[in-house]
Amino acid sequence: MDRHPGGPTTIVAWAGKDASKFFNEIHKGVKIDSYLRPESHLGNLGVDGDLMSDEFWHTLREARIVEVREEIDRVLSETAKDGHKADSLPRLLQDKNLDPQLKIKLQRLETQKRAALDSEDYTKALDVKKEIEKILSDQAHAHMHDVPLDIPNSSGGIPLSEVARHNKPHDCWIAINKNVYDLTDFLIHHPEQRNSILAWAGRDATAMWDKIPGRFPSKQWMDFFMRSEWKMGDVGAEPKRDAVYEQLKQLHDELRRLEGPSKEDIEAAKTAVKVPGKTDAPTLSEEARFPKLAEISAGKELPFFTRAEVAKHTTADEPYMIIHNRVYNLKPLIGSHPGGDDILLNKAGTDATKDFEVFEHSEKARVQRDRDMLVGQLVPGENTDWSAEATVAQVVGEETSEVGRYMKYKATDIAVGAVAWYLYKTLQNTKPLSQFTYSRALRHLHLIMAVGIFGAVGTAQAASHSEGQTRKQMLWWHKQTGLAMLFALVVRFFLRMQSGIPPRFPGNPMVQMLETQSLRAFYVLALLLPVSGIANEYFLKWAPGSDKTGNAEDDKRNDRLAKQSIDAHKLLSKFLQFAWLPFHLGYTTFYHWTQGRGVVKKVSPFI
C-alpha cells in the first residue's frame, strides 16, 4: 500500500472485493504479477465462504495455527541437533540456544529499524542495519549463525534470492538486464521517485525495461541517474536450496496467512462499537443533508466513469461535470443556467463539487439536477470522501495561510480605527445646521451609503477573482451589503422628505439636467440591484416548483425567471460601475471641485 503510485486510497476502496474489472481497465492488460511481489499471492479464489460458518472457520484457523507453530518448533529443534545454523535474522531470534542478552539486543535494534522505516527515516534505518551486521560479524557470535552479511562474491554472480533480501527503502537492490544495482543511496536523496523504484526492490525489473521512456527502469533514466559505483555485480545462478530452509519458509508463509485479526476484533469491527461520550464526526454528505436525493437515484443502475473519461467531455454538445462523485451531463442546463453558460463550460470535464457548494444550491435545484442530468458515477477507487471529517476543508475551503490571517487582523484594525475616527469626528461636529441645507442625519446616511456602494462593488469583484471559502465569504458580504443598502434607501427617502434642500451650483442647464437624472438614477439603481438579487434567490430556492405543484413547467419557469433576474442584476451592476460612478464622482464632483465650489462641504456630516 505504501508503494502504490496511486496512493493507498484506491486499494482501501476495493479491500475485500473483487477488483478484477477495475484493475484491468486501469492497467490495460498488464498482469498483476508485474506489480506485486510473489509473497503477496495468497492463493486462488475459492468457494463461497458462506458454505462454512464463521464460528467453524475460526475454530479450524486457530487449531491450524497451533499445529503450524508446533511444527516450526519441531523443525527448529531438529535443526539445532543436526548442526543447521540460522540463515536469517528471524530464524536466529527463534533459536532457543541463542544467548538471552544477545537476543534482547538484536530485538531492540530490529525494533529501532522498524520504527525508523515507519517514520521514513531511511538513513537511520541503514545505520541500524549496519550495527546489526557488525554485531553478527563479531567473532564471539559468527559461529552461531549463517546469516549472510557481506556482499556475495561478484565474480560468481549474485543470485536473485540474495537480491530478494534487499527489498527495503534503507536496503534496496534491483536487478536490471542481468546486472544488480544498489539504489539505497539514490532513494535517500531522491524521495520523489520512491514509489516507482520500491515497487521493484529485491526483484528483477527487466520485464519493465523501457516500457515508459524516461521513467524507471529505462535507458534514458539509466543514462541520466545511474552511477557506476551502484553496480554490485552480475546476476548469478541460484545456489542449491536447503531442504530445511524451504520447509521453514513454507511454514512461516502459512502462519503469516493464518494469523490476523481475532474473532473478537472482527466482530468489533462489524458492530462498530462507539466510544462512550464520543460524538460523531461532522458530515457534509450531500444525501445526508438532502434526503430527497436518495429517492431520485433509488433503483437506478448507474454506469461507472473514470475521471479521465469525464475529462474528455468538455464541449457544449456534451459537457460532463463531477459533483459529489456523480457524473452529470449539463447539456439541458445550457442556455438556462442562472449563472450563465461560461461558468458551466469552464468547469466541464472537472470535479466542480467545491464550486457547487460555494453557491449553496437549494434542495430543489439538486433534485432537479439529479432528475434531469445524472448519467453515471465515479469508479469507487477514484471517489472523494466528502463526508469525512478530514475533508471538510475540501468543500468549505482551505485553511487560511499565515499571510491571510495577518491581513485579516490588519483589516480589522483598520476598520476599528475608521469607526473610532468617525465617532470622534461626529462628536466634534454637533451644532445645528441651517434649514436651507441637508440635515446632519441625511449627511451621515449619505456617507454611509457611499461606503456601502463601494463595499458592494468591491466584494463582487473580489468574489469573481477568488475561489473556495474566500469566494463564499465575499458573496455573503456582497449580499449583506446589498440588503443593508436597500434598508438605508428607505430610511434615506424619509430623511430626504424632512430635510432642507441647499441651492444648486450654477452651471450649464444641460449639465444641471444630467446631474438631476444622475441622482434619480441612483435611487433606481439602489432599489433594483438588491431587488433583482433577492428575486434570483427566491426563484432558485423558494419559489414553488414541481415538488409542490406536480407541474414540471414550474421548474422551467423558475429557472427562466432566476436567469432573467441575475442577468438584470449583472447588467445594472455594470451600469453602476462603468457609467454612473464615473459620471457622478468623476465628472460632477471633480468638475465643481475644480471650480472652487464646496461640493464636499455640501454633503459632509463633519461641519
List the helices and strands and how they pair.
Elements: H1 8-13, H2 20-27, H3 54-82, H4 89-93, H5 100-118, H6 122-136, H7 139-142, H8 160-165, E1 167-168, E2 171-176, E3 179-182, H9 184-189, H10 194-198, H11 219-225, E4 231-234, H12 243-258, H13 263-271, H14 286-289, H15 292-297, E5 304-305, H16 307-310, E6 320-323, E7 326-329, H17 341-347, H18 353-358, H19 363-373, E8 374-378, H20 392-396, H21 402-428, H22 440-464, H23 468-498, H24 509-542, H25 546-549, H26 552-594, H27 599-603
Parallel strand pairs: 5-8
Antiparallel strand pairs: 1-2, 2-3, 3-4, 6-7, 7-8
Q: What does this entry look like structurally?
A:
By secondary structure, this protein is mainly α. The chain has 27 helices and eight strands. The strands form two sheets. A four-stranded antiparallel sheet has the order 1-2-3-4.
Within the largest sheet, what's the order of strands?
1-2-3-4
| Low-pLDDT sequence parts | 151-155, 272-283, 388-400
Main β-sheet description: 4 strands, antiparallel
Radius of gyration: 37 Å
Strand content: 5-15%
**Number of extended strands:** 8
**Number of DSSP helices?**
27
* Percentage of residues assigned to helices: 55-70%
What is the overall shape? elongated
Distance between the termini: 74 Å
* Arithmetic mean pLDDT: 77
Structural class based on helices, strands and sheet pairing? mainly alpha
